[in-house]
Design a protein that fits this description.
Helix 5 (about 155-170) crosses helix 6. Mean pLDDT is about 90; it is low at about 1-10 and about 10-30. This protein folds into 2 domains: about 1-150 and about 305-380, Response regulator (Rossmann fold, 3-Layer(aba) Sandwich); about 155-300 and about 385-410, Response regulator (Rossmann fold). The strands form 4 sheets. It has a 5-stranded parallel beta sheet with strand order 2-1-3-4-5, sandwiched between helices. Strands 6, 7, 8, 9 and 10 form a 5-stranded parallel beta sheet that branches. About 50% of the residues lie in helices and about 20% in strands. The relative contact order is 0.12. The protein is of the alpha/beta class. The chain has 13 helices and 16 strands. Strand 6 (about 175-180), helix 6 and strand 7 (about 200) form a beta-alpha-beta unit.
């Protein structure tokens, strides 16, 4: 209910802003403004809704600022957002992009997950639609020349960060537990490859389906694998569970608590899909288990050097949604400014190739509130530091960072 009320407020705000823009255009013909349609594919209900809700708010705030700039300059561009709730569902994402295409939207912000991006990619490539995802990390989607651009580092860079933390902590054996979707499969594969390349051992672990609600089989399996490692002479302090998941982490931890040792006595490490999850801190039992097993989660971080730039926007988003935004959500604020600049370069979307090239050029040159927006050859964010977040006293606390290959742990 809370999520629906919050989203309703955001949606109403967007509608009011758009109505205001239309009236301004009609009342002052001297203002040469063009309105461009932008589709927003976000998860607004259910698992992952925190990022979706904050994404809508970030775009709304960016539009308001651009609108104010346009009014003062008697020109500029306006954006009409078409928001669709995809609920992390690839089929819903595909249905939504087809609908948005019929409505004339050639720019899409979102969707959040790699599974959704993988589903809509063929359609976007075939219909000259620019897709700008704020949350997809699967390295399998790092394809040069396509119409998919991603505002966050891919899973190879995230794996580098979490593996570095594991090695820093003396972990040499991991038992993975992961969700069977494109993004989390990518994280598992990248962590496994990098961990083994550095001399570590990765057990077979357990991969669960996206529809799983009973995690007793999953937790029993990884508990058995840990027991086997210890029985074979492996020091228990060098074993960890690596969990790549979304908000179902709550059910995973409920099941793990019922198992008890060795799951409750083994260190756990997580992924960006859970970092800052309101679902986890909102469940006392799961939050307590998370704290007891340490459970640091890496996530694309915000530059401390730009704190004065991103903090006011972060505060405004939280004031509107009640949810503290992360770098993924804030990157969409930056994205709208890059889109604006690209449109200024080419004038319109009639020549899609020209707009696409302008978007890349402007992204490479732009430094926003989340730092450099420069893209690599596959159209993904080229660089990025990571923060490590863990649950402490039912609250997410930043416990360290990974930057330029160096781990820093806060006291």
């Amino acid at each position: 209910m809370k999520i629906r009320v919050v989203f309703g407020a955001i949606a109403c705000g967007l509608v009011l802003a758009l109505v205001g823009s239309a009236r301004a255009d009609q009342s002052d013909e001297s203002h040469s403004r063009r309105v461009f349609k932008i589709g927003v594919l976000a998860t607004l209900t259910g698992s992952g809704s925190s990022l979706g809700i904050d994404t809508v708010a970030a775009l709304q705030i960016a539009e308001e600022q651009l609108q104010a700039d346009a009014s003062s300059q008697h020109g500029g561009y306006r954006f009409h957002f078409f928001v669709r709730d995809t609920q992390h569902d690839p089929s819903k994402a595909l249905e939504a992009i087809k609908d948005l295409d019929r409505r004339g939207a050639q720019i899409i912000i979102g969707p959040q997950t790699s599974s959704e991006v993988a589903m809509i990619k063929p359609y976007a490539d075939a219909h000259n639609i620019l897709v700008i995802s704020q949350g997809s990390t699967a390295s399998s989607l790092a394809i040069p020349g396509d119409n998919i651009f991603r505002l966050c580092p891919d899973d190879v860079l995230e794996a580098e960060a979490i593996v570095a933390l594991m090695l820093h902590d003396g972990i040499s054996n991991i038992v993975p537990l992961w969700r069977n979707d494109a993004g989390n499969n990518g994280l598992h594969d990248s962590v496994k490859a990098q961990f083994e390349a550095l001399g570590g051992t990765v057990a077979s672990g357990f991969r669960y389906e996206t529809t799983t609600t009973d995690f007793s089989a999953a937790t029993s399996s990884i508990a058995s694998q840990i027991t086997t490692l210890v029985g074979g002479g492996t020091d228990a302090s060098t074993i960890a569970v690596y969990l790549a998941a979304f908000d179902e982490v709550v059910d995973v931890f409920h099941a793990a608590q019922l198992v008890g040792a060795p799951l409750s006595t083994t260190t756990w490490y997580g992924s960006d899909g859970v970092a800052l999850s309101a679902a986890l801190t909102g469940d006392a039992t799961a939050a307590a288990f998370a704290e007891s097993v340490d459970y640091p989660n890496p996530i694309f971080g915000l530059p401390d050097s730009l704190h004065s730039e991103w903090q006011p926007i972060s505060d405004e988003i939280e004031a509107r949604t009640g949810i503290k935004p992360d770098a993924f959500a804030l990157s969409t604020y930056d994205a709208l400014f890059v889109i604006q600049r690209a449109l200024e370069d080419v004038g319109d979307l009639k020549d899609f190739a020209a707009f696409k090239a302008a978007f890349v050029s402007e992204a490479d040159a732009y430094v926003g509130i989340t730092g450099s927006m420069a893209l690599n050859s596959a159209g993904d964010r080229a660089n990025g530091d990571f923060d490590f977040w863990a649950v402490r006293n039912d609250t997410w606390v930043r416990i360290g960072t990974y930057s330029n290959g160096q781990i820093t742990i806060f006291p």
